[in-house]
Amino acid sequence: MDLDAFRWLLTPEGQRLLARAADAPADPLRASASLRRHGTAEQVAAALTQARLRERAADKFGDLAARMYFTPDGLEQATRQPVAEHRAARLVAAGTSSVIDLGCGIGGDLVAAARAGITAAGVDLDPLRVEVARANLAALDLGGAVAVADATTVDHSPFDVAFADPARRSARGRSFVVDDWTPPWPFVEDLLRRTSCVKVAPGIPHALVPAGVEAEWVSDHGEVKEAALWSGALATVARRATVIGSGGLATLTEEDDPGAEVRAVGDYLYEPDGAVIRAGLVTAVAAGVGGGLVDPHIAYVTADDAFRTPFARSYRVVEELPYREKQLRAALRERGIGRLTIKKRGVDVVPEELRKRLAPTGDAEGTIVLTRVAGQGTCLLVQPF
User: Fold this and answer.
1) Could you tell me the residue ranges of all domains in the chain?
2) What distance in Å separates the CA atoms of residue 69 and residue 50, rounded to the nearest whole number?
3) Taking the model in full, what pTM does it have?
Protein backbone atom coordinates (compact mmCIF):
# COMPACT_ATOMS: atom_id res chain seq x y z
CA MET A 1 0.00 0.00 0.00
CA ASP A 2 1.41 3.40 -0.93
CA LEU A 3 0.55 6.79 0.48
CA ASP A 4 -1.77 7.84 -2.36
CA ALA A 5 -3.75 4.59 -2.17
CA PHE A 6 -4.18 4.98 1.58
CA ARG A 7 -5.31 8.58 1.29
CA TRP A 8 -7.87 7.48 -1.31
CA LEU A 9 -9.23 4.95 1.21
CA LEU A 10 -10.10 7.87 3.50
CA THR A 11 -12.36 9.46 0.85
CA PRO A 12 -16.10 8.66 0.78
CA GLU A 13 -15.54 6.38 -2.23
CA GLY A 14 -12.66 4.65 -0.47
CA GLN A 15 -14.72 4.14 2.67
CA ARG A 16 -17.48 2.48 0.67
CA LEU A 17 -14.97 0.15 -0.98
CA LEU A 18 -13.43 -0.64 2.39
CA ALA A 19 -16.86 -1.56 3.75
CA ARG A 20 -17.40 -3.91 0.82
CA ALA A 21 -13.93 -5.40 1.31
CA ALA A 22 -14.85 -6.36 4.87
CA ASP A 23 -17.59 -8.63 3.49
CA ALA A 24 -15.59 -9.95 0.52
CA PRO A 25 -14.87 -13.69 0.11
CA ALA A 26 -11.88 -15.04 2.00
CA ASP A 27 -10.23 -16.26 -1.20
CA PRO A 28 -8.02 -13.38 -2.48
CA LEU A 29 -8.80 -13.93 -6.17
CA ARG A 30 -12.56 -14.12 -5.65
CA ALA A 31 -12.45 -11.13 -3.32
CA SER A 32 -10.51 -9.04 -5.83
CA ALA A 33 -12.87 -10.02 -8.66
CA SER A 34 -15.95 -9.14 -6.61
CA LEU A 35 -14.63 -5.62 -5.92
CA ARG A 36 -12.94 -4.84 -9.22
CA ARG A 37 -15.85 -2.80 -10.61
CA HIS A 38 -15.75 -0.50 -7.57
CA GLY A 39 -12.15 0.69 -7.94
CA THR A 40 -8.82 0.32 -9.67
CA ALA A 41 -6.68 -2.74 -9.07
CA GLU A 42 -4.48 -0.71 -6.71
CA GLN A 43 -7.47 0.66 -4.79
CA VAL A 44 -9.05 -2.78 -4.46
CA ALA A 45 -5.76 -4.22 -3.22
CA ALA A 46 -5.45 -1.43 -0.64
CA ALA A 47 -9.01 -1.99 0.61
CA LEU A 48 -8.61 -5.75 0.87
CA THR A 49 -5.27 -5.37 2.63
CA GLN A 50 -6.80 -2.99 5.13
CA ALA A 51 -9.81 -5.24 5.75
CA ARG A 52 -7.58 -8.25 6.44
CA LEU A 53 -5.29 -6.21 8.67
CA ARG A 54 -8.29 -5.12 10.73
CA GLU A 55 -9.22 -8.76 11.24
CA ARG A 56 -5.70 -9.58 12.41
CA ALA A 57 -5.56 -6.46 14.59
CA ALA A 58 -8.56 -7.53 16.68
CA ASP A 59 -6.19 -9.67 18.75
CA LYS A 60 -4.17 -6.57 19.70
CA PHE A 61 -6.74 -3.79 19.64
CA GLY A 62 -10.05 -5.51 20.41
CA ASP A 63 -13.17 -3.65 19.28
CA LEU A 64 -11.12 -0.60 18.24
CA ALA A 65 -9.53 -2.54 15.38
CA ALA A 66 -12.66 -2.34 13.21
CA ARG A 67 -12.31 1.46 13.06
CA MET A 68 -8.54 1.73 12.87
CA TYR A 69 -6.02 1.59 10.02
CA PHE A 70 -2.81 -0.40 9.78
CA THR A 71 0.23 -1.32 7.72
CA PRO A 72 1.54 -4.89 7.96
CA ASP A 73 4.81 -4.03 9.70
CA GLY A 74 3.13 -1.26 11.71
CA LEU A 75 0.62 -3.73 13.14
CA GLU A 76 3.37 -6.22 13.96
CA GLN A 77 5.35 -3.61 15.88
CA ALA A 78 2.39 -1.92 17.59
CA THR A 79 1.87 -2.29 21.33
CA ARG A 80 -1.07 -4.46 22.41
CA GLN A 81 -3.94 -2.28 23.59
CA PRO A 82 -4.02 -3.57 27.23
CA VAL A 83 -0.28 -2.94 27.56
CA ALA A 84 -0.51 0.53 26.00
CA GLU A 85 -3.44 1.35 28.30
CA HIS A 86 -1.42 0.26 31.32
CA ARG A 87 1.43 2.54 30.23
CA ALA A 88 -0.97 5.45 29.73
CA ALA A 89 -2.49 4.82 33.16
CA ARG A 90 0.97 5.03 34.73
CA LEU A 91 1.52 8.36 32.98
CA VAL A 92 -1.80 9.68 34.26
CA ALA A 93 -1.01 8.49 37.80
CA ALA A 94 2.26 10.41 37.63
CA GLY A 95 0.41 13.61 36.69
CA THR A 96 1.45 13.65 33.03
CA SER A 97 -0.47 16.15 30.92
CA SER A 98 1.50 15.91 27.66
CA VAL A 99 3.60 13.27 25.90
CA ILE A 100 5.50 13.12 22.63
CA ASP A 101 5.90 9.78 20.88
CA LEU A 102 9.27 9.75 19.11
CA GLY A 103 8.67 7.17 16.40
CA CYS A 104 4.91 6.76 16.70
CA GLY A 105 4.39 4.18 13.96
CA ILE A 106 0.67 3.65 13.33
CA GLY A 107 -0.16 5.44 16.58
CA GLY A 108 -1.12 2.64 18.97
CA ASP A 109 0.50 4.30 21.97
CA LEU A 110 -0.73 7.73 20.83
CA VAL A 111 -4.29 6.37 20.85
CA ALA A 112 -3.90 4.96 24.36
CA ALA A 113 -2.46 8.22 25.70
CA ALA A 114 -5.15 10.34 24.04
CA ARG A 115 -7.92 8.06 25.33
CA ALA A 116 -6.47 8.52 28.83
CA GLY A 117 -6.84 12.30 28.49
CA ILE A 118 -3.19 13.11 27.82
CA THR A 119 -2.27 15.66 25.16
CA ALA A 120 -0.37 13.51 22.67
CA ALA A 121 1.87 14.30 19.72
CA GLY A 122 3.86 11.94 17.54
CA VAL A 123 6.57 11.98 14.90
CA ASP A 124 7.81 9.31 12.51
CA LEU A 125 10.14 9.20 9.53
CA ASP A 126 7.68 7.20 7.41
CA PRO A 127 5.02 9.44 5.74
CA LEU A 128 2.62 6.49 5.36
CA ARG A 129 2.79 5.60 9.03
CA VAL A 130 2.24 9.22 9.96
CA GLU A 131 -0.84 9.33 7.74
CA VAL A 132 -2.12 6.10 9.30
CA ALA A 133 -1.53 7.39 12.84
CA ARG A 134 -3.34 10.63 12.00
CA ALA A 135 -6.25 8.65 10.54
CA ASN A 136 -6.44 6.49 13.66
CA LEU A 137 -6.75 9.50 15.94
CA ALA A 138 -9.47 10.93 13.69
CA ALA A 139 -11.33 7.62 13.37
CA LEU A 140 -11.55 7.32 17.16
CA ASP A 141 -12.46 11.02 17.62
CA LEU A 142 -9.28 11.71 19.55
CA GLY A 143 -7.16 14.82 19.68
CA GLY A 144 -3.46 14.81 18.89
CA ALA A 145 -0.92 15.90 16.32
CA VAL A 146 1.33 13.79 14.09
CA ALA A 147 4.12 14.91 11.77
CA VAL A 148 6.87 13.52 9.60
CA ALA A 149 10.15 14.19 11.38
CA ASP A 150 13.39 12.60 12.54
CA ALA A 151 12.91 11.71 16.21
CA THR A 152 16.58 12.36 16.93
CA THR A 153 16.29 16.02 15.89
CA VAL A 154 12.95 16.91 17.51
CA ASP A 155 12.88 19.29 20.48
CA HIS A 156 10.94 17.27 23.05
CA SER A 157 11.64 19.56 26.00
CA PRO A 158 8.17 21.23 25.98
CA PHE A 159 6.49 17.89 26.78
CA ASP A 160 6.13 16.38 30.24
CA VAL A 161 7.20 12.97 28.99
CA ALA A 162 9.09 11.72 25.95
CA PHE A 163 8.19 8.21 24.79
CA ALA A 164 10.15 6.12 22.29
CA ASP A 165 9.75 2.66 20.83
CA PRO A 166 12.94 2.07 18.81
CA ALA A 167 12.55 -0.15 15.75
CA ARG A 168 14.44 -3.34 16.55
CA ARG A 169 15.17 -4.42 12.99
CA SER A 170 18.18 -4.45 10.73
CA ALA A 171 18.71 -5.52 7.12
CA ARG A 172 18.88 -9.09 8.47
CA GLY A 173 15.48 -8.88 10.16
CA ARG A 174 14.52 -8.58 13.84
CA SER A 175 17.55 -7.68 15.92
CA PHE A 176 18.23 -7.82 19.65
CA VAL A 177 21.49 -5.91 19.25
CA VAL A 178 21.01 -2.36 20.53
CA ASP A 179 23.39 -0.95 17.91
CA ASP A 180 20.87 -2.00 15.24
CA TRP A 181 17.97 -0.06 16.80
CA THR A 182 16.43 3.03 15.21
CA PRO A 183 16.82 5.46 16.93
CA PRO A 184 20.13 4.02 18.18
CA TRP A 185 20.97 3.15 21.78
CA PRO A 186 23.00 6.34 22.46
CA PHE A 187 19.84 8.33 21.67
CA VAL A 188 17.90 6.15 24.12
CA GLU A 189 20.50 6.66 26.83
CA ASP A 190 20.33 10.41 26.31
CA LEU A 191 16.52 10.36 26.40
CA LEU A 192 16.57 8.48 29.70
CA ARG A 193 18.38 11.40 31.32
CA ARG A 194 15.06 13.23 31.35
CA THR A 195 11.56 12.08 32.38
CA SER A 196 10.79 9.53 29.73
CA CYS A 197 9.62 6.02 28.90
CA VAL A 198 11.29 3.76 26.34
CA LYS A 199 9.79 0.49 25.13
CA VAL A 200 12.46 -2.17 24.61
CA ALA A 201 12.69 -5.90 23.91
CA PRO A 202 11.92 -8.09 26.96
CA GLY A 203 15.31 -9.76 26.57
CA ILE A 204 17.19 -6.57 27.43
CA PRO A 205 20.08 -7.41 29.81
CA HIS A 206 19.74 -5.97 33.31
CA ALA A 207 23.28 -4.63 33.01
CA LEU A 208 22.23 -2.42 30.10
CA VAL A 209 19.65 -0.53 32.17
CA PRO A 210 21.16 2.81 33.28
CA ALA A 211 21.43 3.58 36.99
CA GLY A 212 18.33 5.23 38.41
CA VAL A 213 16.10 3.91 35.62
CA GLU A 214 13.21 1.56 36.38
CA ALA A 215 12.91 -1.54 34.21
CA GLU A 216 9.40 -2.99 33.95
CA TRP A 217 8.61 -6.29 32.24
CA VAL A 218 4.99 -6.71 31.14
CA SER A 219 3.10 -9.88 30.24
CA ASP A 220 -0.38 -10.07 28.77
CA HIS A 221 -2.33 -13.27 29.49
CA GLY A 222 0.85 -15.22 30.17
CA GLU A 223 2.96 -13.92 27.28
CA VAL A 224 5.81 -11.51 27.94
CA LYS A 225 5.24 -8.68 25.49
CA GLU A 226 7.79 -6.03 26.30
CA ALA A 227 10.01 -4.27 28.75
CA ALA A 228 9.74 -0.56 29.43
CA LEU A 229 12.39 1.74 30.87
CA TRP A 230 11.04 4.56 33.05
CA SER A 231 13.25 7.49 34.00
CA GLY A 232 13.13 10.72 35.93
CA ALA A 233 9.95 11.30 37.91
CA LEU A 234 8.43 8.11 36.43
CA ALA A 235 10.99 5.76 37.99
CA THR A 236 9.79 4.49 41.37
CA VAL A 237 11.70 1.21 41.81
CA ALA A 238 14.56 -0.59 40.07
CA ARG A 239 12.73 -3.70 38.78
CA ARG A 240 9.06 -4.40 38.28
CA ALA A 241 7.00 -7.26 36.83
CA THR A 242 3.49 -6.44 35.69
CA VAL A 243 1.05 -9.15 34.66
CA ILE A 244 -2.20 -8.45 32.83
CA GLY A 245 -4.85 -11.15 32.83
CA SER A 246 -8.57 -11.80 32.82
CA GLY A 247 -8.71 -10.79 36.48
CA GLY A 248 -7.07 -7.43 35.88
CA LEU A 249 -3.54 -6.18 36.52
CA ALA A 250 -1.03 -6.98 39.24
CA THR A 251 2.50 -5.76 39.81
CA LEU A 252 5.50 -6.97 41.78
CA THR A 253 8.76 -5.13 42.54
CA GLU A 254 12.06 -5.80 44.25
CA GLU A 255 10.57 -4.17 47.34
CA ASP A 256 8.33 -7.24 47.60
CA ASP A 257 11.35 -9.57 47.51
CA PRO A 258 12.86 -10.53 50.88
CA GLY A 259 14.60 -13.47 49.20
CA ALA A 260 14.03 -17.20 49.55
CA GLU A 261 16.06 -20.34 50.07
CA VAL A 262 16.23 -23.66 48.23
CA ARG A 263 14.06 -26.31 49.87
CA ALA A 264 12.67 -29.79 49.26
CA VAL A 265 9.71 -30.16 46.94
CA GLY A 266 6.49 -29.65 48.85
CA ASP A 267 2.88 -30.42 48.03
CA TYR A 268 2.60 -27.56 45.51
CA LEU A 269 4.65 -26.25 42.60
CA TYR A 270 4.48 -22.75 41.17
CA GLU A 271 5.61 -21.69 37.69
CA PRO A 272 6.34 -17.94 37.77
CA ASP A 273 5.06 -15.74 34.96
CA GLY A 274 7.63 -14.85 32.29
CA ALA A 275 7.61 -11.19 33.33
CA VAL A 276 8.50 -12.21 36.88
CA ILE A 277 11.38 -14.34 35.61
CA ARG A 278 12.69 -11.58 33.32
CA ALA A 279 12.54 -9.10 36.20
CA GLY A 280 14.51 -11.45 38.46
CA LEU A 281 11.70 -11.63 41.00
CA VAL A 282 11.18 -15.39 41.31
CA THR A 283 12.15 -15.30 44.98
CA ALA A 284 9.47 -12.65 45.53
CA VAL A 285 6.90 -15.19 44.34
CA ALA A 286 8.44 -17.80 46.64
CA ALA A 287 8.12 -15.45 49.59
CA GLY A 288 4.52 -14.66 48.63
CA VAL A 289 3.46 -18.31 48.81
CA GLY A 290 5.55 -19.09 51.87
CA GLY A 291 7.84 -21.38 49.93
CA GLY A 292 11.26 -21.64 48.36
CA LEU A 293 13.12 -22.59 45.21
CA VAL A 294 13.53 -26.16 43.97
CA ASP A 295 17.01 -25.24 42.73
CA PRO A 296 19.09 -22.05 42.99
CA HIS A 297 19.21 -21.72 39.19
CA ILE A 298 15.69 -22.85 38.24
CA ALA A 299 12.60 -20.64 38.11
CA TYR A 300 10.26 -23.05 39.89
CA VAL A 301 8.86 -22.38 43.33
CA THR A 302 7.57 -24.97 45.77
CA ALA A 303 5.48 -24.68 48.93
CA ASP A 304 3.45 -26.79 51.35
CA ASP A 305 0.28 -24.75 50.98
CA ALA A 306 -2.02 -23.94 48.07
CA PHE A 307 -2.16 -20.35 46.87
CA ARG A 308 -3.69 -18.61 43.90
CA THR A 309 -1.37 -15.88 42.69
CA PRO A 310 -1.45 -13.77 39.52
CA PHE A 311 2.32 -14.09 39.34
CA ALA A 312 2.53 -17.85 38.77
CA ARG A 313 0.66 -20.91 37.54
CA SER A 314 -0.15 -23.23 40.39
CA TYR A 315 0.07 -27.05 40.48
CA ARG A 316 -0.52 -29.73 43.07
CA VAL A 317 2.33 -32.22 43.15
CA VAL A 318 0.80 -35.68 42.77
CA GLU A 319 3.98 -37.74 42.88
CA GLU A 320 7.53 -38.01 41.63
CA LEU A 321 7.95 -40.21 38.54
CA PRO A 322 11.13 -41.79 37.14
CA TYR A 323 13.32 -39.32 35.29
CA ARG A 324 14.84 -41.89 32.95
CA GLU A 325 12.89 -42.21 29.73
CA LYS A 326 12.27 -45.97 29.68
CA GLN A 327 11.00 -46.07 33.25
CA LEU A 328 8.97 -42.91 32.71
CA ARG A 329 7.23 -44.49 29.70
CA ALA A 330 6.26 -47.47 31.83
CA ALA A 331 5.01 -45.25 34.66
CA LEU A 332 2.77 -43.23 32.32
CA ARG A 333 1.28 -46.37 30.80
CA GLU A 334 0.68 -47.84 34.24
CA ARG A 335 -1.36 -44.75 35.07
CA GLY A 336 -3.20 -44.77 31.74
CA ILE A 337 -2.02 -41.26 30.80
CA GLY A 338 -2.57 -40.72 27.08
CA ARG A 339 -3.05 -36.96 26.88
CA LEU A 340 0.26 -35.67 28.16
CA THR A 341 1.43 -32.11 28.76
CA ILE A 342 5.19 -31.80 29.19
CA LYS A 343 6.67 -28.78 30.91
CA LYS A 344 10.39 -28.36 31.35
CA ARG A 345 12.90 -25.94 32.75
CA GLY A 346 16.65 -26.23 33.16
CA VAL A 347 16.95 -29.58 31.35
CA ASP A 348 17.91 -30.42 27.78
CA VAL A 349 14.56 -31.78 26.58
CA VAL A 350 12.40 -31.00 23.54
CA PRO A 351 8.84 -31.73 24.74
CA GLU A 352 7.41 -32.51 21.29
CA GLU A 353 10.17 -35.02 20.54
CA LEU A 354 9.98 -36.60 24.01
CA ARG A 355 6.21 -37.02 23.71
CA LYS A 356 6.67 -39.00 20.50
CA ARG A 357 9.22 -41.28 22.14
CA LEU A 358 7.07 -41.81 25.23
CA ALA A 359 4.09 -42.66 23.00
CA PRO A 360 1.57 -42.23 25.84
CA THR A 361 -1.62 -44.26 25.60
CA GLY A 362 -4.73 -44.26 27.75
CA ASP A 363 -7.79 -42.19 28.59
CA ALA A 364 -6.33 -40.17 31.45
CA GLU A 365 -4.80 -36.72 31.17
CA GLY A 366 -1.61 -35.71 32.92
CA THR A 367 1.05 -33.02 33.23
CA ILE A 368 4.67 -33.75 33.98
CA VAL A 369 7.36 -31.25 34.91
CA LEU A 370 10.93 -32.08 33.98
CA THR A 371 13.44 -29.97 35.86
CA ARG A 372 16.35 -30.02 38.26
CA VAL A 373 15.79 -30.31 41.98
CA ALA A 374 18.90 -29.56 44.03
CA GLY A 375 20.93 -30.14 40.87
CA GLN A 376 19.38 -33.52 40.02
CA GLY A 377 17.13 -34.28 37.05
CA THR A 378 13.60 -34.81 38.35
CA CYS A 379 10.18 -35.61 36.91
CA LEU A 380 7.08 -34.52 38.80
CA LEU A 381 3.51 -35.51 37.98
CA VAL A 382 1.43 -32.44 38.76
CA GLN A 383 -2.17 -31.31 38.55
CA PRO A 384 -3.05 -27.70 37.66
CA PHE A 385 -5.44 -25.91 39.99
Assistant:
1) 3-55, 75-250, 268-384
2) 7
3) 0.92
